[in-house]
Amino acid sequence: MISWPTPFLPAVPGERFQIELYDLRTDSLRPLRPGPTARTYACGVTPYDSTHLGHAATYLAGDLLHRALLDNGHEVVSVQNITDIDDPLLERAHRDGVDWKDLAADSIALFRDDMTALAVLPPTHYLGVVESMDTITSAVRALVAKGMTYTLTDERGGPDVYLDLGQVDAAPGDIGRLDRDTMLALSAERGGDPDRAGKRDPLDPMLWLAARPGEPSWDGGDGLGQGRPGWHIECTALAVDLLDVPFDVQLGGYDLVFPHHGMSAAQATALTGAATYAEHYVYQALVAYQGEKMSKSRGNLVFVSRLREAGVEPMVIRTLLLGQHYRREWEYTDEMLQVATARLTRWREALSVNTAPAGEETVTAIRAALARDLDSPAALAALDEWATRTLTEGGDDNEAPGLVSRAMDALLGLRL
Ligand code: 5CA
Ligand code: ZN
C-alpha cells in the first residue's frame, strides 16, 4: 500500500538523551535500547470512520517516538497495518449500501491525507490485510502444520481454525496483568467469541474464518480452503515477517492491550518459539468526547478531516494533541482549539524576531522532555517559556529563532 510522503527533517545540534519509555507489561519506565535499527509496530486503522482525534493521538505518540529515535541516530523500521477486511468494516459497508472495498479505499485515502497534514512520519511498511494475504495464510498454515490448532464447525459455519492456547507457552493476559475474568469479559467485548461451544479454551483466538455465504473470502491454501484470517494473526504475521521477534516497541491505543496484543504475542510465541514479542508495550490513553471514550460504535467522533475542512490549521490540531501526554486520558472540547491557536500564534511571533534569547537550553529541555516518556506537554512548556522571554525581554542571539524552529520541526513535527 502506498503510504504518504516523508518530510525532510532538519539537523539540530545539541546533547542527546537516553530514551526512557513506559512499558505496560512491566509497569515501569524502562530505558529503550534498540540496536542501530529500531523496530516498531503500530496497529493501523480499520478503514471506516477514521481519522478521529483518538486515532490521531495514537499515531502522534508513535511519531514522537520515531522522531526521538532518529534524533538519537537510529534507523527506524516501522510497520503499520490496515485492517481492510473485518466484520465491522463489512457491517458498515452493508449499513451504508456501499462496496466494502470502496469504503476501505476512500477511508485509507483520507487517513493518508490526515497523516500528511499532521506531519506524522510514514511507516516503512504500510500494508493492508488483503494485499498481505499470502504472508498471513502462511502463518496460519504454519500453526496448523505444528499441530497447535483445531477446527470447529457448527450452525455459525466452519470449519473455522483456532489456536489451541493450551499448547502455547504464553500468558496472553501478561501485558495488562489481567486476571481470567477480565480477559473473558474483554474478549467478548472486543471481537472474540468466548461463548462459542466446543472451544477448548474460551479465549482461543480464531486464526481462520471459513467462507460465509455472501461474504468475501480468499483461498487460504492447503488445508484452509476459502475464508479470511482472524484479526490478531494479521498483525502477528506482518510483525514476524517484517520485523522479526522480539522487536522493540508495540504501539496502539489502550483498547488493544487485550485481546489483540495478548493474542498477537501468544501467536508469535507459537510460531517462532520466542518468549518475548515486543520489548516495550506502549499505549495511548483513550481520548474521550462528550463524556465517553471516542469510539466508532458510540459515534461520538471528532474527525481530523472535518476540522481541516472547517479551516482549522493542521498544526493547530498537532499542537492541541501534543499538549496532552500520551499516557493521560483527556476529553476533547472545542475550546482546546482556541488555546492551541493562541499558542501557535505566540510561537510564530517569537520565531519572527531578528534576535532572541539563546535557544540551546530550550532545545535541550525539549529533547530531555521527549526522552522522558515522550513528555510532549513539558516540551511545549519549554517552547512557551522561550517565546515569553523572547517577546517580553528580547535577546541578542540572531541564530536562536532558526535553531528553535528547526528543533520544533525535527523533534515535534511543528512546521510553522
Ligand atoms: N485495526 C485495528 C488495529 S490492528 C484497530 O484497532 N483499528 S481502529 O481503527 O479501531 O483504531 C486504530 C488505532 O486507534 C488503534 O491503535 C486504537 O487503539 C486507537 N484508538 C481507537 N480509539 C481511540 C481513542 N478513543 N483514543 C485513543 N486511541 C484510540
Ligand atoms: Zn493490530
What is the topological layout?
Layout: E1 20-23, E2 28-31, E3 37-42, H1 53-71, E4 75-82, H2 87-96, H3 100-117, E5 125-128, H4 133-145, E6 149-154, E7 157-163, H5 180-189, E8 206-210, E9 218-219, E10 226-229, H6 231-242, E11 247-253, H7 257-272, E12 278-284, E13 287-289, E14 292-293, H8 304-309, H9 314-322, E15 330-332, H10 335-351, H11 360-371, H12 376-392, H13 400-412
Parallel strand pairs: 3-4, 3-11, 4-5, 11-12, 13-15
Antiparallel strand pairs: 1-2, 6-7, 7-8, 8-10, 9-10, 13-14
Bound molecules: 5'-O-(N-(L-cysteinyl)-sulfamoyl)adenosine (5CA) and zinc ion.
Task: Give an overview of the whole structure.
The chain has 416 residues and is α/β, with parallel strands linked by helices. The protein folds into two domains: 23-284, HUPs (Rossmann fold, 3-Layer(aba) Sandwich); 304-412, Anticodon-binding domain of a subclass of class I aminoacyl-tRNA synthetases (Four Helix Bundle (Hemerythrin (Met), subunit A), Up-down Bundle), CATH 1.20.120. The protein contains 13 helices and 15 strands. It has helices spanning 53-71, 87-96, 100-117, 133-145, 180-189, 231-242, 257-272, 304-309, 314-322, 335-351, 360-371, 376-392, 400-412; strands at 20-23, 28-31, 37-42, 75-82, 125-128, 149-154, 157-163, 206-210, 218-219, 226-229, 247-253, 278-284, 287-289, 292-293, 330-332. The model has no long low-confidence stretch (mean pLDDT 98). It binds 5'-O-(N-(L-cysteinyl)-sulfamoyl)adenosine (5CA) and zinc ion (ZN). Zinc ion is lined by residues 43, 81, 235, 260.
